[in-house]
Each structure stands twice: as C-alpha cells, then as structure tokens.
Amino acid sequence: MILPDDKLDGIPLDAPPAYEASTSSSAPSDTKRPSPVVTTTSNSNSSAYPPLKSAPPSSASWFGFASPASRQVRSTVLGLVRDLVKQADEGEASAVVTSSILKSCSDACSANGLSIGALLQEPSVEGHTPLYWAIIKRPPENPSSSPTTDLLTTLLSLSTPLTPATIAEIRLACLLTSDQALFQRLRSSPDFSPLSPTDQLILDASIPPDAITVENVPHDEFAFAVDVAIVRFQTRMRVGKHIELDFIARGRMWRLAFHVSERRRAGQPPPGTWFISLGLLEGSPPTWIDSRLLVPAPIDALLTPPSQGFGSGFFGPGKPRPRPTLSVRLKAPEQLYSTGRHRRSEIVVVLDDGDSGLGTLQYAGCPYIQPDESLQLRLEARLARPEADCVIC
Predict the structure, then answer these.
(1) Which of 176, 194, 212 corresponds to the end of one domain?
(2) For 93-122, what is each residue's pLDDT tens digit?
(3) Is 346 within a domain?
(4) Within this chain, do residues 227 and 92 fall inside the same structural domain, yes or no?
(5) What share of the chain is helix, strand, coil (3-state, %, to 5)?
(6) What is the pLDDT of residues 343-362, one digit of tens each?
(7) How many domains are contained in the chain?
(8) Contact at 8 Å (CB) between 245 and 256?
(9) Are strands 290-295 and 375-382 parallel, antiparallel or unpaired?
C-alpha cells in the first residue's frame, strides 16, 4: 500500500521495522527490509537480502545516523543483557552460558560498528547500568572459596575502559550492599581505581597494592577496625604528596588519607605540613565518630637501644625498652556528612600535634617504617559521640 505524502510526515525513512513486523513470518511486504539479526555474516550469498552499505561507524556515531540493522542489534543486545541481570540470582544463567551469550553480543556489536563496552555502561536497566545491578543481585561470597567468574566479572571484562559515571555507580552498588571484599578487589584493578601518574612511576608491577582489611567488632554494631599496609609510604608522601585509602564499614564509605599540605587553604595546615584526614564519601549517611589511629613498631624494632647517658658506667648498661605504639585520636566534634558545603565532612589531624609521636613518620630512619618502606597501621573506630575518655572497641 502506498501512503499519501501527508501520512509520511514525521516517520523517519531509516526507522527500524516495528516489533510486530519483525516477528511475523506470514504478513506480506512490498518493500524488502534487512532481516533483524544479532550476528552478521561476511558471505552475501547466504543472506536473503543484499548487505547494507552504510557510512563508517565513527562517522555514523558523530551524526547519529545508524542503519536499521545496527539499531536492531543494539536493542537485542540490551534486551539480552537485561535478561541476564534479571536471572543472575536464579541460577539459570550459569557462568558458561553467560559468557557465551555476552561473547556473541560482543561479536555482533563489532560486526555492526557498535561498542559493547559503551552499551554495557548505559543506564539501560531501571535507570542504572547492568554492572550496578550485577553487584546488587550478586550473592554473598564464601570467604573460604576462591573468586569465580560470574556475570559481574564478565561484564567488567567487556566494559573497559570504565567511565567516571560507571565507576561512581559501581562504588554506590558496593556501598548499598556493604560489600567491602568486592570493593577492595575492584580497587586493586587499574581500570576501576587507576594510580596517579606519580604513583605509576613510583610503584612498578611487582609491588602489591595497599592492603585494607575491615573487621566489624563482635557484639557492637557501632564499632569497627581497619588494618592497613601502605607500600612505599615515605617516597609516595614526599613525591606524590598524598595517599588515599577508601573502604566500606558499617554501611558507609570512608576515606583515610595522608597528605602533605601544598598551599594555604581554609581549614588546612600550613604548606609542608604532614597531616591525616578521615572522612565520609558519597552516598554515606551522616554519623558521629570517635576513633584512634595506631602505628605499632615493626617486630625487629620493638626494643629501643639501651641508654648511654649519664650514670650508665656506674650502674652498667641500661636494658632495652620496648617501643611504644604510636597513637593519635581522630574524633569529630560534630556529625560528619558526605555532602553539604557548610557541613563537616572530615577530621583533620596534624602529625606533629600533641605527644602522639606520629610526626616521626616523616623522617628518614623512622623505626616504625618497615624495611621495605611499608607502613602498617590500625584504625579503631566507634560510631558514637566522642566522650572525654577515648574508649574504643
């Protein structure tokens, strides 16, 4: 049937066939359309219709022009990914089947000038990316078992490079599920948490990333502890000027950071000062916190040498004394907030302040720095209003 010209107004000439037309095998058609398929073939004789001659993918993406076949492939891939996400917790999408389906989707996208990585990072499932939902629906890990290839792993392998918006969604999903183990595993990936250019030069591939372990204190739903091992601590501080350690504890995302102040700013120490900060990150509810940072001496430096001062010859050489654990209190005089221009978002403590002894960490030959230049520390915290006496954990 030929429609009058006035009926054609508003209908794009390259619009894909309607769903009913693409699924009906009996309705006649006056105009031949390319068959809506997911995969394509280079052999034109095996197709019932001649191949489409379209502009290169890059030019098409610039101007928003796409062939009906590409649009159909895009729609089909997004639909398949949505189904995989929906079935992720039902045991129906096994690792092998999931990997096979996503591999076919990737091949189809490549054959039609589409980027599977870009499609997987679109908010195509209820306003969020498939990666977000793969984390939300992911079953809890068994600590005794090794990580396996699941839907999330396969999606991540096809989605690189990750955009800042996708990284923010992944961080939010880890926070909502309180999945600290997954969050730390992702942080060790350069695609998710790339090193600064300075750290890339300082840390080679043989050096493991900073290790962060979170422990929820038993029988106290407000308390937690964090054990940290920072690699190449002094070199990174002197050259890069800051080290950031992100973790999830008690339903909140935190950042413990070491800084060297570089310029005068309101609320910051003078330039050249080493200081610590502890704050809430995006998506975290407000809270009080009372905490302390502990730096134990390395095992081979637990004892101080005997004193050689006055009277040592009369009384004999003094006995070695155990080195004390360095400690500094990090408390919030008011609630911390993750957002808000005029609200406190972090606690700042200068290393040289008070008698904590943490100022020694910036000096060469510090006995609290491991022989490999790593620094081991422990943060003990309780989500409560600070009291006069620090009683934590």
Answers:
(1) 194
(2) 477 888 899 999 999 999 999 999 999 999
(3) yes
(4) no
(5) 30, 20, 50
(6) 888 999 999 867 788 999 99
(7) 2
(8) yes
(9) antiparallel
